[in-house]
Write a structure and sequence with these properties.
Elements (H helix, E strand, L loop, with lengths): L1 H49 L3 H6 L3 H25 L11 H6 L39 H11 L23 H8 L15 H7 L21 H18 L4 H18 L10 E5 L5 H8 L3 E6 L2 H13 L6 E3 L12 H4 L3 E3 L14 E4 L2 H5 L8 E7 L8 H11 E11 L21 H10 L2 E11 L13 E10 L6
Parallel strand pairs: 1-2, 1-6, 2-5, 6-7
Antiparallel strand pairs: 3-4, 7-9, 8-9
The structure holds S-adenosylmethionine.
The site of S-adenosylmethionine (SAM) has 22 residues, from helix 5, strand 2 and helix 13.
Pfam family, one: CARME
Protein name: carnosine N-methyltransferase
Organism: Nicotiana tabacum
Length: 494
C-alpha cells in the first residue's frame, strides 16, 4: 500500500514536471517566434501599401523605406531576445519527453495555478554580494491597459506554475554576428540611420529557428512548438515592461509608481542597519526594478514573480548586464497607431539605464519564482517580513481576499504593507472559463477586508500614473491608483 502511494506520488511529480517543461518550451518558443510574427505584421502593412492606387502610393513613397527600417529594428529586438535565451538556464531538464502530458490530459488550459504542493516553494537563491542576482524563473505583459491586464488573463495554466530558480548561466553563441550588435549600437537618433547594407532579415531569420550549434540544446528548433499569436503578444508586452523598469524613458513611470513607495519605506524605516537590514517582500515583482531599488535603499529584499516570461528577462538584466546602455531595443515598432511621427515609432531605447550589479544592492536580494499564494501561504513564511510592497499586483488575484490574508500572515506584528495600483481585475473577463474564479471588490471593500485582517490605515492617497505607456503616443491610458500604507496590529492591540 505504502509502495503504491510512493509510486503514485512519483508518477504525479513526473507528470507535473513534464507539464512544466512543456509550458516552458511554449514560452521559449513564443520568444523565438517573435521575429517571424513581427515580420508577418510588416508583410501585412506592405500588402496594404501595394493595394493603393499609384496616385496614393506616390504621396507615400517613404513607406517602403519605413518597412525596411522596421525589419531592421525587428532584427535588433530579436538579437536582444536571443542573447537573453542563450544565457537562460532552464530550471528543468528540457530534453525530457513531454508527450506524457497529452496522454494524461494534464495540459488542458485552465487558469488555476498548476504547481504542486509537494514541490519545494523556496527554491530562491539569495544574491551574492558580488552583485548579480542568482535567482529565479516564469509570464506577463500590446497596449498599456491590454498589456497590463491581458497578460495574466491570456496566460494559460501551463505558464502559471510556480517556478524554480533561474541560475547564472554560461553564454552560448548566437549565429547573429557581432556586427549586428554593433550596428544596433550605431543607430542614429532618428531611429535607423545606419541600416546594414546586407539583408536586414538576416538576423531575424537567424533567431527564428536556425539556431547555431553553439546554442544551448534546449533551443534546438526541433523542440520548438508552434505557439498562438497571443503568446508572441506577451513577448511584445515584456518589451514594453523593459522600458518601464530598465530604460531612461521609463523614469517618469518609475517616479510615479516606485518613488512614492521608496520614500514611504525610507520614512517608515529610518534606522536601517547593514548588519541587520529590515526585510521586504515584493510580490508580482515583474522585471525586478522596484525590488532592486528597495534593496539599494538598505532592505533585504525578495521579489516574487510567477511568470517565466518575466523571470527569463529579469534574470538576464539583473545577472548578465555588463554595463548601462549595453543593449538597444525598439519597443514601439509593433503598432502604427497613434504615432505622431515615424521617427517616434522607430526610436531606439537603451537598456539598462543603470548597471544593476553596481547599483549598490543590499545582501539578501533575491527573486523568487512561484505563485505568491503557494509560496507564501507556507507556514514557514508566517511573521517573517518587516514590509510587503505590492505595486500593480493586488488585482492579479483570483481571490483578492486570499492575497490580503497572506500579506497579513507573512508580516511581522507591527509590519507595514505599502500598496500602489488600480483594481483592473485580471480575471474579470475570463467568462469563457466556467471554472474561473474572480473576486472583484471595490476599493472600499478591499479596505474593509484589510481591516478584518488586522490592518490599520496609516496613509492613503490617489496617484495618477500610466503603465508601460509609450510617452510619445497619442493615446495614454491613465490610472488613478490607490496608494496606501497599512500597519499590521501588534499582538497587544489585536
Ligand atoms: C501588472 S504586473 C506589475 C509588475 C510590477 N510590480 C510593476 O509595477 O511593473 C503584475 C505582475 O504580477 C505577476 N503575478 C501575477 N500573479 C502572480 C502570482 N499569483 N504570484 C506571483 N506573481 C504574480 C505577473 O506575472 C506580473 O509580472
Amino acid at each position: 500500500m505504502l509502495n503504491m502511494e510512493i509510486e503514485e506520488e512519483l508518477e504525479r511529480r513526473k507528470l507535473e514536471e513534464a507539464l512544466e517543461v512543456k509550458s516552458l518550451r511554449r514560452i521559449i518558443s513564443a520568444y523565438l517566434n517573435y521575429p517571424e510574427a513581427a515580420e508577418e505584421d510588416v508583410k501585412r502593412w506592405e500588402r496594404s501599401f501595394r493595394k493603393l492606387p499609384p496616385r496614393h502610393k506616390a504621396l507615400l513613397s517613404h513607406l517602403p523605406l519605413k518597412f525596411q527600417k522596421l525589419r531592421w529594428c525587428i532584427a535588433q529586438n530579436s538579437y536582444f531576445i536571443f542573447e537573453m535565451l542563450k544565457v537562460f538556464e532552464p530550471p528543468l531538464d528540457m530534453s525530457q519527453d513531454v508527450d506524457i502530458c497529452e496522454n494524461q490530459h494534464l495540459d488542458v488550459a485552465s487558469d488555476s495555478h498548476h504547481s504542486s504542493k509537494s514541490r519545494n516553494p523556496y527554491l530562491c537563491e539569495s544574491t551574492s554580494t558580488s552583485g548579480g542576482v542568482d535567482c529565479h524563473s516564469l509570464a506577463e505583459p500590446m497596449s498599456e491597459e491590454t498589456c497590463y491586464r491581458k497578460f495574466r488573463a491570456l496566460t494559460n495554466v501551463n505558464e502559471e506554475q510556480d517556478v524554480d530558480i533561474l541560475k547564472k548561466s554560461n553564454a552560448g553563441k548566437c549565429s547573429i554576428s557581432l556586427e549586428d550588435h554593433e550596428s544596433a549600437n550605431n543607430i542614429g537618433d532618428d531611429g535607423c540611420k545606419s541600416l546594414p547594407d546586407r539583408d536586414p532579415l538576416y538576423a531575424s531569420a537567424c533567431c527564428n529557428g536556425n539556431v547555431s550549434s553553439s546554442s544551448p540544446d534546449w533551443l534546438d528548433p526541433s523542440l520548438q512548438l508552434h505557439v498562438p499569436l497571443v503568446d508572441v503578444d506577451k513577448v511584445r508586452c515584456i518589451i514594453r515592461n523593459i522600458v518601464r523598469d530598465w530604460a531612461k524613458e521609463g523614469q517618469q513611470e518609475r517616479d510615479q509608481c516606485y518613488r512614492p513607495i521608496l520614500e514611504e519605506l525610507e520614512r517608515l524605516f529610518p534606522n536601517r542597519s547593514k548588519e541587520n537590514p529590515p526585510s521586504c517582500l515584493v510580490p508580482g515583482a515583474g522585471l525586478g526594478r522596484l525590488a532592486l531599488e528597495i534593496s539599494c535603499l538598505g532592505f533585504a529584499c525578495q521579489g516574487n514573480e510567477f511568470s517565466y516570461y518575466m523571470m527569463i528577462c529579469s534574470s538576464f538584466i539583473l545577472n548578465h548586464a555588463q554595463a548601462a546602455g549595453e543593449w538597444t531595443i525598439f519597443p514601439w515598432i509593433h503598432s502604427n497607431c497613434n504615432s505622431v511621427s515615424d521617427n517616434d515609432q522607430l526610436r531606439p531605447v537603451s537598456v539598462p539605464d543603470i548597471h544593476p550589479a553596481s547599483a549598490g544592492i543590499t545582501e539578501g536580494f533575491s527573486m523568487c519564482g512561484g505563485d505568491f499564494v503557494e509560496v507564501y501561504s507556507d507556514p514557514s513564511q508566517a511573521g517573517v517580513w518587516d514590509a510587503v510592497v505590492t505595486c500593480f499586483f493586488l488585482d492579479t488575484a483570483h481571490n483578492i481576499v486570499e492575497y490580503i490574508e497572506i500579506i497579513s500572515e507573512v508580516l511581522k506584528d507591527g509590519g507595514v504593507w505599502i500598496n500602489l495600483g488600480p483594481l483592473l481585475y485580471h480575471f474579470a473577463d475570463m467568462y469563457s472559463h466556467e471554472d474561473e474564479m474572480s473576486i472583484e471588490l471595490s476599493l472600499e471593500d478591499v479596505k474593509r477586508v484589510a481591516l478584518q485582517y488586522g490592518f490599520i490605515f496609516e496613509k492613503e492617497s490617489t496617484i495618477e500614473t500610466t503603465y508601460t505607456t509609450n510617452s510619445r503616443s497619442m493615446m495614454q491610458n491613465r490610472y488613478y491608483a490607490a496608494f496606501w500604507t497599512m500597519r499590521k496590529k501588534t499582538a497587544a492591540t489585536l
